[in-house]
Structure formats: C-alpha cells, structure tokens
Amino acid sequence: MYENPRLILDSSNPPEPGAITWRSPSNIAIIKYWGKHGVQLPRNPSLSLTLAASCTDTRLEYAFRDEAHGGPVDLDLYFHQQANEAFRAKTLAYLESLAAVYPFLKQLKLTVHTGNSFPHSAGIASSASAMSALALCLCSLEDKLFGTLQDTAEFDRKASYLARLGSGSACRSIFPYAALWGETALVPGSSNEFAVPVGDLIHEQFRDFHDDILIVSTEEKAVSSRAGHALMDDNPFAEPRYAQARQRLDALLSAMRTGDLETFGKIVEDEALTLHALMMSGNSSYLLIKPDSLAIIEKVREYRAATGQPVYFTLDAGPNVHLLYPGNIVHEVRKFIEDELAEHCENGYVQQDWVGEGPEEL
Ligand code: 2P0
C-alpha cells in the first residue's frame, strides 16, 4: 500500500550522514494473533497492551553511497556492541524486502546498533520491540530525507505497517497503552495492514496495569512462532477459532471500556489457554507450556479464589507466564510472586513490566 511514490535520492544533491535512535517496547496480546496469510496478514483481529520495561533501543546510522542503487543493501549490525551475523542476516532480508517501498535504502550505507533492556536469551520475545524500533527508525529516516511523514498519525501508521512486514505482532508496539490490529467493524479505521491506537477506548485503570513476566524457561522454543502460525493453515479448529476471536474481541472491548475487570480477566485467561490448545490440536501437535507453567496457573487461580484479588495470567507462544493486575495491588501481588511463584521460575527470574506510553525517539 506504500509502494508509490518510490522514494529515490537525488545523487547530484546527496544528504549529509546522520543517525536516528528509537526506544520501542514489547507488547502482550490479550486477544491473540495466531494464524496468518500473505505477508503477516492476520486471520483475526488482535488486541494488546503496550509494555514499558521490556524494550529495544535501535540506532540507525546512514550515509549516502555514490553507487548505482541496484545492488544489495549495505548493512553492518551490532547487537550489544558486538557484530552479530545472525541478526544482520535477518535485518538485511527485511530491508531487502522493503526495496519496493524504499528503493533509497540501496543508496545508503547503513549501520544498526541495537540492544534490549532485558537479558538476551531470557525467554522474552524480542521481535515486537526490535522490529518496531527498526521500523520507527526507518520512518524517521524517510521523514528526514524526504519530509513525507510530518503528520504524526501518518508517521505512526506507516511505522506500524513497516513493523508488521517484519513481524506481525510488532505492529501493535507503536501505540501508547493499547493497540488493535486487524480489520473489525467494532473499531472504525482498523486494518489488517497496520495497528491502530485504542488507548482512548479503554478505562483508565488499564493504563495503570502491571505485567510481571515469570520466566519459567529460557530454552529456545521447540517450534517457532512462524512455524506455529503455519500449522494453523490445516488446524481443524482454525475457522471456529477465528470466529471466536472476533466474538471475544467484542466482549473484551466492552469490558475494557467500562472497566469490568472480571470479564477482562476471564477473556485474558481463555485466550491464553485457547492459544496453547491450538498448538496441541494441530497437525503436528506440540506443547510449549511446562509443568512449572501449569503450577503457576493453578496457584494464580487458587490465590484469586482465596483473596478475590484481580490477578490474571496470560501466555505468549512459550512457557513463560505473564501476570496481569491493576497497579493498586502491586505490593500484595509482588509478595505473592516472591513467596509462591518465583520458585517455579528459572533462577527465580521475574521481569517486572507494566503498561506504558509507547515508543520514544532518543
Ligand atoms: C500475539 N504471538 O498476538 C501472538 C500470540 C505469540 C502468541 O504474534 O511470524 O512473532 O513474525 O508474524 O508476531 C508471535 O508471532 O509472528 C505472536 P510473525 P510473531 O502476540
């Protein structure tokens, strides 16, 4: 949708070298994206809370190179100050895939310095924060070189679009508090191509919300998200699942609008278990949750039954458990985590996070 106009630099008037840096957070899906077609086009709409502490900082340096722009993108990449060939190859493939949108990338020498706020290999998904940070750098670069993204809403939309091309869930990280990705009549302006902000559609208590991530295992997953999405293509429950996600989105938006925590919590947990049930019921079946994930889930439900506190679990495509709860009970919940849940985490590790205001340019 952004192929035209093709943005090309005038080699008789080359730009000065420069650099751009963005910090962008991860996000946690409440309604899950699971199943896609084309280039990261979702089978159902998803809705996420934008996090604050789990983020990626990316600095993009650029300089004009006076060469024909038909060759490969010229890229160096450093992850935590070290040249990283695996990330370079991944980023290069992404930048090459953008050539139709951004032919000018081939006219530049690019150097990326990137790093995460959380320990590498902590089992925390980094593709959402990493791809959104890079997409934001690319939009700032476009605006610096061509002045074409002066409008903030248009800037964010394009950043979300570019992030989506790198990793579907990354498109939701662009916006403060909460984002919705996928076309639905429930939210005017929603699209399969990019996410839209929905922070204004939710009760203020969801802006002061915590997500403590209980790291059950840091081992690499047996089945990647890419392969997991692909397995949805012939999952016998795929169609009812996509319909269910739409119904749940409707109920979730109402609950989040009015601040109905109980309904919110029920949908959060049902979505988490459905996601993993889909993994268990595909062809081939697989399991990503571990005994400690289940032990935590059971303890959370027991704690809620005993105390009445609104603490809910969700899961990403992995064994780690996210605990979602409002800010006014942070002290009680942190004590519960310390006393009862940390023992189920690898080296007792818990990444504390909360709902945040979205990316910032540094
Ligand atoms: C989500 N997940 O909505 C769902 C729920 C994980 C569980 O999107 O292939 O890394 O890059 O589009 O976004 C993880 O998959 O997949 C994911 P690609 P992505 O957050």
Summarize the structure.
This protein is α+β, with helices and mostly antiparallel strands. It is built from eight helices and 14 strands.
How are the elements arranged and paired?
Elements (H helix, E strand, L loop, with lengths): L17 E14 L4 E2 L3 E2 L3 E19 L9 E6 L2 E2 L1 H13 L10 E9 L10 H20 L5 H15 L11 E4 L13 E3 L11 E6 L10 H7 L6 H21 L2 H20 L10 H17 L4 E4 L5 E6 L3 H12 L8 E5 L5 E2 L1
Helix pairs in contact: 2-3, 5-6
Bound molecules: ligand 2P0.
The site of ligand 2P0 has 17 residues, from α4.
User: What share of the residues lie within helices?
Assistant: 25-40%
- Give the overall silhouette: globular
Largest sheet: 8 strands, mixed
Mean pLDDT over the residues: 95
Would you count the extended β strands for me? 14
CATH architectural designation of the largest domain? 2-Layer Sandwich
What class would the helix/strand composition place it in?
alpha+beta
Low-confidence stretches: none
List keywords for this structure.
362 residues, alpha+beta, Ribosomal Protein S5, domain 2, Alpha-Beta Plaits, 2 domains, 8-stranded mixed sheet, 8 helices, 35% helix, binds ligand 2P0
